[in-house]
Amino acid sequence: MIKHLLLISVFFSFACAGHIHWYGSYSNAFKTAQKEHKPMMVLLVKKECRPCSDMIRKYFMDQPYVDLLDQKVVSVIVVSGGRASYPIELFYSTIFPTLFFVDSQNESFLTEPFYGTIDGNRLQNEIGRILSLEQ
Question: Per-residue pLDDT tens for 64-108?
Fold first, then answer.
């Protein structure tokens, strides 16, 4: 039994490293971001969207900026048409995925949203700029 618990523990510690830890609830993420005075990264996706999963895998797993981003930003995945509520009037899009960086104190955009396939250089530049605002 202890062997199984140890294996499960090791698996989860490896599974949780090198990627963004996403909230699944906008309201919980928003409360945390406000309490911790951190900006939010809101990723709007659609169910069974191949470009959405490709974006997560390409830009939010095993990248040099992921750990710092995970420490400095509260990240949430919002599924368009899903059960969880979010301010759709603020994060409306018909293009998926869409990525927003938002000030948690007043819900203003910190940068122009990223619609659809993104430019990795622009993403890294914006991440760097947003993280420098937090220091």
Answer: 889 999 999 999 999 998 887 899 889 999 999 999 999 999 999
User: Given the DSSP bridges, would you call strands 98-102 and 40-46 parallel, antiparallel or unpaired?
Assistant: antiparallel
Dihedral angle, C-alpha 81, 120, 122, 72, nearest 10 °: 70
Q: How far apart are CA 102 and CA 113, in angstroms?
A: 10
The three-class DSSP label of residue 22 is strand
What the block records as the tokens of 104 is 């948690």
Rounded to two decimals, what is the model's pTM?
0.83
If you count DSSP H runs as helices and E runs as strands, how many of each does the chain have, helices first?
5, 5
Share of the chain above pLDDT 90, in %: 62
CATH 3.40.30.10 assigned to 19-133: yes
